[in-house]
Amino acid sequence: MAFPNERRKKLTKLWETITIRNITIKNRIVMAPMHCFSFEIKNGYHTQQYIDHYIARAKGGAGIIITAATSVCPQVTHPGIWEDGQIPQMKQIADGCHKYGAKVIVQIICKKGDENRLTTAKIRFIQEQYISAAKRVSASGADGLEIHCCHGSLMCRILSGETNFRSDSYGGTAGNRARILTEMLPEMRKVVGNDFILSVRLGGNMPTIQDGIQFAKILNKTDVDILDVSSGNISPTHQLPESYHGSLISHLATLLKQHTNLPVIGVSEIFTANDANYFLENDMFDLAAVGRGMFADDKWATKALNGEIINQCHNCGKSRVHCHWFTDHTKCPARKKLTR
Fold first, then answer.
1. Which of 18, 31, 100, 258 is the most exposed place for a label (fewest CB within 10 A)?
2. Distance (Å, rounded) from C-alpha 313 to C-alpha 86?
3. Cβ burial, residue 149 (10 Å; 0-12/13-18/19+)
4. Domain of 98?
5. What is the total count of domains within the chain?
6. CA dist 340 → 60, 97, 218, 269, 297 (Å)
7. pTM of this prediction?
8. CATH of the domain at 214
9. Sign of dihedral through CA atoms 121, 124, 126, 132?
C-alpha cells in the first residue's frame, strides 16, 4: 500500500540528486557500510555472497552503496583490497551496482598496529598501503573510497586524543593527529584522478564533540569530498536537545555539518522514509545512510522513494550490536516476514 500523495510530496527531498566530483548521485539514500559476519570470506576475498548482497541493495534503489570495511593490509578473515588479485571481485560489485544506477564507494580500513608505538617509517608504510589500495579501488571501476576513521580502528585511535599519546609530529594537537590523513590525501588524489570521490568516515566524538568539529574543519581544507559521521572509540553520551528526533550518533552528523562545507552523511536508527526525510528536509545532513533497515529489506530505498510500505527492521536489542543479521543473517526476524 502506498502512502497518500500528500505524504509522498513531503518525501521529495529523498529524490533529489547531488553531484560530487562530477559524479551525479540519483537520490539521497546511502547503503551504510555494515559487515555481515556470517558471510563467507575466502582468504580475504569477497565471495559471491557479498557481491550479490551489494547488488541487491543497488537494485533496490539506493543512490550510493558503501561497502563494509575492506582491509588495506593482509587480514584473511576480512574482505580486502591489499593485492591486485582482489580487484576482479570488487569490479563485479561495481559493475553490478552500476547496472541499477547506484554509485559505489569502497570503505577501506587498517586495524593492525599500536598507535603509540608506530615508528615514522611504519606510519609511512601504512600510508602507502592506503594509497596502493586507493589505486586498486579506482582500477575496479568503483566511484570512490571511504577511509574508516571511527569505531576504534587504527586511524580512529591515531586521531583520538584519548588513545594517541605520541609526542612527535603525529601526536598532541588535532592537526598533528590528523597528519597521517592530511599527508596521504593529496597522494591518493594523484592516483585516483579528479573524477573520483574521497570520503572519510569520522567519529564525531574524538573523544569530545569539539575534537570532532576540529577534524571536520581540518578535512574541509583537504582533498576530501564527503564527511560520513559516526562515533569514535566509544559511543557518544552527550545530552540531546529536546527538539531533536534522532539518535546520539545522527546528532553528531548534525553538529559537524554546521562546521564544514562538505556534504555530510548521517547514520543511525534511520528505519523509515520519514526518518530519512526529516534529517534531509531540515538540513541536518545531506545524505541519509541506512544500515539495518536495508538488511531487513533490500528494496528499502525504492519503497521509501515511492511511498510504499517497508519491511521494517525490528531494531533487535535497540542496538547494532544485538542485530541478528549483523551476527547471523539467517536469524533476522524481519527477513522471515519479508513482503515482496
1. 258
2. 32
3. buried
4. 5-337
5. 1
6. 11, 20, 45, 23, 9
7. 0.93
8. 3.20.20.70
9. negative
